[in-house]
Amino acid sequence: MSLLVVGSVALDSVETPFGIKEEVLGGSATFFSTAASFFNPVQLVAVVGEDFPEAHVEFLRSRNVDLSGLVREKGRTFRWKGKYGWQLNEAQTLDTQLNVFQSFSPKLPEAYRNTPYVFLGNIHPQLQGQVLDQVKAPRLVAADTMNLWIQNTRAELLETLKRVNLLFVNDGEARQLTGEHNVVKAARAILGMGPSTVVIKRGEYGALLFEKEHVFACPAFPLEDVFDPTGAGDTFAGGFMGMVATAGRLDRDVLCRAMVMGSVMASFNVERFSLDRLRDLQTPELYARFNEFKRLTHFDEFPLTAQ
Amino acid sequence: MSLLVVGSVALDSVETPFGIKEEVLGGSATFFSTAASFFNPVQLVAVVGEDFPEAHVEFLRSRNVDLSGLVREKGRTFRWKGKYGWQLNEAQTLDTQLNVFQSFSPKLPEAYRNTPYVFLGNIHPQLQGQVLDQVKAPRLVAADTMNLWIQNTRAELLETLKRVNLLFVNDGEARQLTGEHNVVKAARAILGMGPSTVVIKRGEYGALLFEKEHVFACPAFPLEDVFDPTGAGDTFAGGFMGMVATAGRLDRDVLCRAMVMGSVMASFNVERFSLDRLRDLQTPELYARFNEFKRLTHFDEFPLTAQ
């Protein structure tokens, strides 16, 4: 079933210990929709400037992403510049140029308004709310956010959260949002803010899913080489939501599988710069690594004859 | 099958955000043998001073720990004083008094020398080697170490590692030992130093087991309240080794189950100060939490009809 994403489409400049890439394709909606497109048709809502390369538009189209909600405005495309040290878990932002994103006001094409699965990428919570005003009867609303909105637009974020079913945050954001240091307490506090499910991403340590009645833990795939963590969170969400939308159900089995597919997708994404790995990725590779996760995490029942 | 441990038996003074405990029972061999005793008879090699309370000796005896290798020397017992902040992952050591431990030279009672499973707790690598000189034909030698030995007695540690089958280290120690920042590369490097298995402990993020051909990831049990992380690593190793010794096999199934039981045991231990939680712990609670780990980590096969 179709899946809608609103977020950024950007040109990123990224430095890691393994190299430098200037003005490559990036943005939360780009990573998300590319990842989700392996499972499901995606409808994208975003804005780019006049300078946005047509080749990138063509790439998204080739991924079967509906671009009728991608607006091209006068001015320059949103740009982000960041740097990672050997601690690849967190980027140091060197520069952010909002450009056309500054006046972005998401408008959904008529064909998007009945879409059942919605992902609100990491943008101003008021814009996230504007998107929700335009969708008619979503089955699942998922959202991402970041420290900037938690700190500067807390009231608006809390309003939006009341309308969100599933929140993706990293552990630092969960602590900042709730004032709870312990990750389990932080998750419980978020479950009191609106969402019935919260996914706490912990970078190389994997992710935890919390619902009122259960918890699921998924490790990150152990990789010898992480080249560029940019987009890991959004590809995680894209794999996760793609799985949920294609299953068309929201039960525990589907959510656990979605966690694993999110980790699978993120693990491929960080193997190369920008979206380079996802461009080459073949569906059978996804399923193969999904099954490797089973071997990585499953163990036998305790023998009944145990003393 | 019986299991031998050499390490410290200590009096700990611990401060956490939840309280202060002075001169409580501690030490690597104490935590390890108490945890392992849920599964298997344990033989202990350690030294205490004249001031070591007889009640603690009685406690260990009540856990079915063979104390014929516990020597009481003139002088004071080994003492450790540490403090944890809200980041409960790592202790700040405030004071270490070696006392009788300074001149400790482990001697194995004759009845210990044929013991098939050996755990070398975190002591000077030369003393670890002395223990190995005295055991006849161990089936599995496991060891723990710490930053102090990696930095100050590297050559001796590398000698001992050649005789070790399984090394338990935390991620910081793995990096320090190998010079590799990436945890997978660090584990591979350790597998080149002697051990055929390495377990990398990551505190609240769980643990990873590496062998040449496979990897297993086990999360930490998500706890709302961690009162005192002291002994978490040693109770992990105790649960792990107890499971291995009682199984009497070293195949992948047993090692994965041992990882989970190590996590189970550590998760109970940190719920209260010192060994207070392990004193009360009942075997059915262990198996119940073991099975909760299954629900925490297992997911269904990917449906064969996936698109």
TrEMBL record, chains A, B:
<protein>
    <submittedName>
        <fullName>Sugar or nucleoside kinase, ribokinase family</fullName>
    </submittedName>
</protein>
<dbReference type="Pfam" id="PF00294">
    <property type="entry name" value="PfkB"/>
</dbReference>
<dbReference type="InterPro" id="IPR029056">
    <property type="entry name" value="Ribokinase-like"/>
</dbReference>
<dbReference type="GO" id="GO:0016301">
    <property type="term" value="F:kinase activity"/>
</dbReference>
<dbReference type="GO" id="GO:0005829">
    <property type="term" value="C:cytosol"/>
</dbReference>
<dbReference type="InterPro" id="IPR002173">
    <property type="entry name" value="Carboh/pur_kinase_PfkB_CS"/>
</dbReference>
<dbReference type="InterPro" id="IPR011611">
    <property type="entry name" value="PfkB_dom"/>
</dbReference>
<feature type="domain" description="Carbohydrate kinase PfkB">
    <location>
        <begin position="26"/>
        <end position="268"/>
    </location>
</feature>
<keyword id="KW-0418">Kinase</keyword>
<keyword id="KW-0808">Transferase</keyword>
